[in-house]
Amino acid sequence: MKGHDRTLEVSPEPLNRAVERICQSKEFRGSSFLGPLLRYLVGCATGNVGQKATAQSIAVEVFGLGADFRSKSNSRVRVATSRLRTALEIYDRRYLPEVSIILHPGSYVPDFSLREFEPTEVTKGLMLADWYQCVASEQAHAIVQHRLSKLVEIAPEDPSLLAAYADAMNDGYKHGFDAHGAQLDHAEGLVERALQLDPRNPRALMSSAFVALERNEYDKVHQCGRALMEIGDEASETNGQWMLDILKTDGPVESVSLSVATKSDETPGWMNHNLFVAAYRRGDYETALVHAVQFGMPLFFWSSIERAAAMAQLGLMSASKLELQRLTELNPLFARNPTKYLSSYIPYQDDILHVLEGLEKAGLRTSK
């Protein structure tokens, strides 16, 4: 994590203080189980409880279930732990606490890390924007857009901040979180101002490319991609190549595949999107599904689009229907105008119709 020294050697006093502050936060006070579950897992990890945290012990000690609880047939503990993990991530990014408590997928043993420095408010905002890019949920978007709107008033001449705010506004439009044309126009104005301040700012170039993609201005997308490539650092080259790849109609996609083994926690899963489209376009649905799974980001409806389409093309109908159900839960407006949402990241009509074909096999019925 940025700005952290990952360690389990956090002394009891700041750790206990951190747990109590988390449990007193609005998000945790509104839940009947998040606080008790957090206290129990931390107690087990530090030895204060005197036992190892397991699904069985959590069921009994936190939820008061009987000793006959079986995690294979009852998902209550898994679901609760997943919600706790998400709540801790949101709390950490929102408040940047002295001690971070991290719960990794598939584990009941939290890690603790001390923050090494106190970042500026602008840096905090940009860290929050980076976190949102790895989550892309409606709740995360609301948090980020609110924070960035306030920071832009304080630092209106910071090109990176302007670009991050523009990107959030553009996402609100194209993901249906706050979809009105004025928001897209505002995003375009912000990113133009950012580029006036710093024509080579990587965030501004990336944000400009995404606005241009939404406007179907593909020459501008290409220009931004080339400009990113010319900056020279690895991150800018990767993002620039991604923008060039999204415009490809055939041939190999050069974006680096982000495998589970190599993907950083700070690398957005949507970087797999171009690889999915390239494989899906040539009818290699198994490879497309691999990239859709590597996409991850379970709270972002686009990941369900790709998984549902690929699974349906492979004849995995039950799984594809579940992904389609997940898609409609995450974005209830999608079925009203699927082409609008698909065109935000798929420039070409033939590819859009091909993905729609998969979604219709999964059971998508468009509504008016």
CATH topology name of the largest domain, in short, is Serine Threonine Protein Phosphatase 5, Tetratricopeptide repeat
Classify the secondary structure makeup into a structural class.
mainly alpha
Order of helices and strands: EHHHHHEEHHHHHHHHHHHHH
Whole-number radius of gyration?
A: 22 Å
Level-2 CATH architecture of the largest domain: Alpha Horseshoe
The low-pLDDT segments are 1-8, 255-265
Q: CATH homologous superfamily of the largest domain?
A: Tetratricopeptide repeat domain
Oligomeric state, counting identical vs distinct chains: single chain
Averaged pLDDT = 87
Number of strands: 3
Strand order in the largest sheet:
1-3-2
Question: Number of domains in the coordinates?
Answer: 3
Can you tell me the CATH class of the largest domain?
Mainly Alpha
Shape: globular
Helix content: 55-70%
Main beta sheet, described? 3 strands, antiparallel
| N/C terminus separation | 44 Å
State which percent range the strand residues make up. Answer: under 5%
